[in-house]
Amino acid sequence: MPDDVKGPAMPVLATARPHPLASATPETCATALRMLAVDAVEAARSGHPGMPLGMAEIALALWGTGGNGVLRHNPANPGWPDRDRFVLSNGHGSMLLYALLHLTGYDLPIEELKRFRQFGSRTPGHPEVGVTPGVETTTGPLGQGLANAVGMALAEKLLAAEFNRPGHTIVDHRTFVSLGDGCLMEGVSHEACSLAGTLGLGKLVALWDDNGISIDGHVEGWFRDDTPARFEAYGWHVVRGVDGHDAQAVRAALDAALATTDRPSLICCRTEIGRGAPTKAGTHSVHGAALGAAEVAAMRDALGWPYAPFHVPDEVYQAFDAREQGAGLEAAWRTRFEAYRQAFPPLAAEFERRMAGDLPTDWPRIAAAIRGAAAEAGAVATRKASQEVIGRLAAQLPELFGGSADLTGSNLTDWPGVRRVNDEGAGRYLSYGVREFAMAAVMNGMALHGGFIPFGGTFLTFSDYMRNALRMAALMRLRVIHVLTHDSIGVGEDGPTHQPVEHAASLRLIPGLAVWRPCDAEETAAAWIAAVEEHAGPSALLLSRQGLPGQERTVEQRTAIARGGYILAPQEGAQAVIVATGSEVSLALAARERLAGAGIPVAVVSMPCLERFLAQPRAYRDAVLPPGVPRLVVEAGHPDPWWKLVGDGDVVGMTTFGESAPADALFEHFGFTPDAIAERVKALTAKVRASKPS
Ligand SMILES: Cc1ncc(C[n+]2csc(CCOP(=O)(O)OP(=O)(O)O)c2C)c(N)n1
After folding, report:
1. pLDDT bucket at 4, cuts 50 / 70 / 90
2. Would you say the CB of residue 213 lies under 6 angstroms from ligand 1?
3. Please, are residues 336 and 170 in contact by the beta-carbon 8 Å criterion?
4. Which position among 436, 534, 584, 635 bears the catalytic label?
5. Quick check: CB of 92 below 6 Å from ligand 1?
6. Does residue 20 have a cis peptide bond before it, meaning omega lies within 30 degrees of 0?
């Protein structure tokens, strides 16, 4: 589509403004938002001015001026538990959010806006949680912010059901999310919004920036859905046909949304992208490039904005300032919370613990009991061992919130007596339906909201479906736990579509994601405990479908599981070390027996978490893998991650897809048998001997 293709004609902006400003009218405030966004993008020579220009009035209606905003937030305390959440799902429009945070009084000085998109600034290219005060989630990958918002709204509903008492409402906030056509085109929006409708998340309000433009041009060529009808079909309350440049109209729609408590609301705001840019408004050229000096100058003239870049008149600051109102809102909540504390002291303490993400004070005792029980488990599939652990954890950690993407009976993610989430928001288990991506993104939203440690299950091979949400969890350092079962060709008859090959290797590439592949019940318990204790990062537990023998361990070995790798079968004068994970550990031990019979002594190392092992001090790693002793790794997955560990050694892995056959036949066929492993060790030791000078 050419640049000049525009959406339906929009009313022309009023341009005449008094100079200097007498008072900050809503129009002036919208102009201030626009100019900050444009000036920052211009300074960075990078960024997306189109969306902030197009959504200025919508932002104004939600965030308000003169204390009349709908959003209940406190700039002085972005972590106040009962604040409304705001998610900018169309994260490329980050400057709109930064401008709002700056103007309403967050700790985001104008200098930070001047350093938009620069190294080390608090205004990165896309909003990042933990970098900018007031940013609730990291957005940019379109559609996921919306799914995060669904998770936040779900967390609110669950916590309200759990903690509120008659006359004592301490959890009562809304989740607002802005989104563009891009978010709606992404498949995850279907998964998440269908789920939100089903769950009746009445405190979720989505504002759609319906400008008819995405990067390639006018969307008519690729996006003609009847979006309002789509959301009505999900069971949402839809406010159609709102003029997104009329702040009062948006405000009226917001009021209608707030009055609707049994369903989520979608407000369809018709807007013009780049509104206010004299020649570029309404075109896709304004979506993601600086306007250029001439266009910005013309825009200043047209909007009657005589100020230098980044100058904001005092009147505008005063109008936006939300600090007093925010302090009042939080103080009122704290008064309510103190009354709650008086009436229900243990509940109040529990709420504070949950929101802080702290484990119970007797956690060490709980963890020790879980480890002890697992040591007794014997031969069992690690997915089954995981279910036992989940049951024990759930009894002690009310924050543990489970689920599965329609594979509960296979992932074994439920536990005796658990209640599924009902319409009232009670329950601790969610059947997410066949929606892996939304499950992972909703879990991220719940973790961001606070109060929960979410975990969810699917087959390891379908982790691809949710991969970017896993990546976002790692980027945001969120404690979410993924139970990924059916972790190898051990799946058997379901065949190569269901047999993961490259998945463990590729998950290990995500920085900060702890990938565990335990070999028995005890390692499974240790992996779960490590995942729960990991406050600042996600974990993936790769679990077997098939039964695996339980291993004997000394106390030292038991403790060493948490280090990611340890010597399971020590050997004096070892000529080689076999390193194995998961289901291949018992094969390695059997190969060791055969090799001993052939006069080749070898040690076996179990390495359930490669990243953890690599993070250990050098001395520990050298003690487990003595330098100079040849190494062979066995894992029924892609060998690539292991080469860095073995050097000149060898890796027994999978470099092709699997096959449809019983698991035993597949292990045999692909060389995962004690005999085949022993032969590979013999070949390795022979090669090493031959290469040594005689
Ligand atoms: C998952 C994902 N795919 C692609 C992109 C790149 N991208 C950024 S904005 C955009 C177009 C979004 O269109 P729309 O939501 O209508 O935003 P607008 O043009 O109105 O600002 C695309 C494709 C992205 N950020 N995330």
Report:
1. very low
2. yes
3. yes
4. 436
5. yes
6. yes
For residues 447-468, average pLDDT = 98
The response to whether residue 193 sits with its C-beta less than 6 Å from ligand 1 reads no
Q: Which 8-state DSSP code applies to residue 67?
A: T
Residue 635 φ then ψ, to 5°: -150, 130
Read off the amino acid at residue 694.
Answer: S
Residue given tokens 């390695």 in the structure block: 588
Separation between Cα atoms, residue 276 and residue 472, nearest integer Å = 34
Between the CA of 452 and the centroid of ligand 1 the distance, in Å, is: 30
Ligand 1 atom 8: residue of nearest CA: 92
Is 436 one of the catalytic residues?
yes
Distance CA 444, CA 194 (A): 17
Question: What rounded mean pLDDT belongs to the chain?
Answer: 95
Protein residue with least CA distance to atom 23, ligand 1: 215
Regarding the beta carbon of 274 and ligand 1, being less than 6 Å apart is answered no
Encode 327-351: b = buried (16+ Cβ within 10 Å), e = exposed: bebbeebeebbeebbeebeebbebb
DSSP, collapsed to helix, strand or coil, labels residue 265 as: strand
Alpha-carbon torsion 162, 165, 170, 173, what sign?
Answer: positive
Question: Dihedral angle at the C-alpha atoms of 328, 329, 334, 340, nearest 10 degrees?
Answer: 140
Ligand 1 atom nearest residue 93's Cα: 21
With CA atoms as reference, report the closest residue to 248 among 70, 105, 93. 70
| pLDDT tens digits along 298-339 | 999 999 999 999 999 999 999 999 999 999 999 999 999 999
Mean pLDDT of 393-421: 97
Most informative mutation of 190, 215, 285 for ligand 1 (most atoms within 8 A of CB): 215
**Alpha carbon distance 262, 398 (integer Å):** 26
β-sheet with 204-210: strand ranges across: 85-88, 175-179, 204-210, 265-270, 237-243
Span from the CA of 287 to the centroid of ligand 1 (angstroms)? 9
User: Residue 261: helix, strand or coil by DSSP?
Assistant: coil
**Per-residue pLDDT at 694 exceeds 80:** no
The burial class, CB within 10 Å (0-12 / 13-18 / 19+), for 694 is exposed
82 to each of 79, 335, 473, how far by Cα in Å? 9, 12, 23
- Residue 214, classed as helix, strand or coil, is strand
> How many other CB atoms sit within 10 Å of the CB of residue 17?
16
Place of tokens 């031969």: 379
What is the number of the ligand 1 atom nearest to the C-alpha of 126? 25
Cβ of 215 closer than 6 Å to ligand 1, yes or no, is yes
Buried b (16+ CB within 10 A) or exposed e, 519-532: bbbbbbbbbbbbbb
CA atoms within 13 A on the CB side of 451: 25
